[in-house]
What we know:
By secondary structure, the protein is of the alpha/beta class. The protein has nine helices and eight strands. Helix 4 (172-181) runs antiparallel to helix 5 (190-200). The radius of gyration is 18 Å and the shape is globular.
Amino acid sequence: MSDAAKTGEDFEHGEREALTGGYVWLECQGEKYRTYYEVAGSGDVPLVLLHTASADSRQYRHLMNDEDILDRFTLYTFDMPWHGQTCPPLDTEWWSDDYQLTTDFYAEFVMTFVDAMGLDQPAVMGCSMGGAIVLELAISYATDLRAVIGLESTGFAPTRDIGYLDHPHINNEVVRPEWTYGLQAPQSPEKFRRESWWHYTQGGHGVYVGDLHFYTQDFDVREEVAAIDTDECGVYLLTGEYDFSASPGDTKEVAEKIEGVYFEVMEEMGHFPMVENPELFKQYIDPVLDDILSSA
């Protein structure tokens, strides 16, 4: 098994990371977005990485510094609108309405990024809400993609809305990180669980609730996933055994409807595998990436 990605203690003073960042203007459904993205690697196969609800591209820093993966793939990650360093549509009165992410916009925005970056038959990996939208991508954009990887994927998840994050008596900056901290496996190193916790102490007002609208109300592919052709677009689903938000059982229900799917439960892992335990996650993701390369 290859070495894991570099973490903080592996970098020397003054050493630069493998990734570089920038901004690209994307137009989607009639609005323009100044979109922050990062890229790393020199491999022939592009791999696009999608962050979780109310988070941003920082979640993939470990993968983006994994020299073994970067030799085989070129990795791209970006912040969705309203997340991280990607603002709302700046030329509109965006503050006049509540932010609500929809399935159509999410899928179209991902593919708009793919097109703008000139990516040919990329693989796309997403976690949580990103793990949900990759199923829609495999349904609607199969001919444009090589494969999708869903981490903590569900086909329909109304119970994932905990129901009180937009209550005026709730301090989102306290409740949001504590809630998501509890979705991680107890075996995961504390420093990485706290890194994920730190991501969730930040975020725009109403963004988490707006993301929840997508995967608890607007998104439902329970029937459509049966039509996915894995010969055309490979589907790989991995879920942490300690994830009680998008449980292994939830993902298994999806996997059982897709012929030719790859499904695995990640032992000693929770809801944020690429953040909370990058070394263990590499053991699970490496065989998937190898299979995608061999299929290519």
